[in-house]
């Protein structure tokens, strides 16, 4: 009888320990996702919170200089970008200049404001579509396409 009681207590302790470990892990995951969330914003908001990481969507300011010299520093690329509110800031990206950067329609930078400069840790480009509705093929091999009336 005593052996059976000890076995039940041991099973109960193991069950409680496993349950506590699962709860602690779940709380850790929840806390880590809440504290490390980045926000889509603009340069004005990023300037108010210099230590916080932001995602900023904007357009390349083509009338301002784009500087990349791989001979001087292959991992430094600077350009100017206007955010959704029209505020223009210099962006410094630690990385190489993406191919066809000047052709991009939209730029998304991720990083932090440092003074008047946005230090980007990564960037994404939205390039113009390669597909034009006016240039749809009429046929492909033996298959023919018909136009749909709108």
Commentary on this structure:
By secondary structure, the protein is of the alpha+beta class. It contains two helices and nine strands, in the order αβαββββββββ. The chain has helices at 2-35, 43-48, and strands spanning 39-41, 54-60, 67-68, 77-83, 88-93, 106-114, 117-126, 139-140, 143-144. The N and C termini lie far apart (83 Å). The mean pLDDT is 81.
Annotate the secondary structure layout.
Layout: H1 2-35, E1 39-41, H2 43-48, E2 54-60, E3 67-68, E4 77-83, E5 88-93, E6 106-114, E7 117-126, E8 139-140, E9 143-144
Helix coverage percent: 25-40%
**Gross geometry:** extended
Percent of sequence in beta strands: 25-35%
Mean pLDDT: 81
Oligomer: single chain
Taking strands numbered 1, 2, ... along the chain, how are they ordered across the largest sheet? 2-4-5-7-6
Q: What is the CATH-assigned architecture of the largest domain?
A: Beta Barrel
Element pattern in H and E: HEHEEEEEEEE
User: Can you identify the CATH superfamily of the largest domain?
Assistant: Nucleic acid-binding proteins
The overall number of domains is 2
How can the largest sheet be summarized?
Answer: 5 strands, mixed, barrel
Q: What is the rounded distance between the termini?
A: 83 Å
> Spans with pLDDT under 50 lasting ≥5 residues?
none
What is the CATH third-level topology name of the largest domain? OB fold (Dihydrolipoamide Acetyltransferase, E2P)
Q: Quick one: CATH class of the largest domain?
A: Mainly Beta
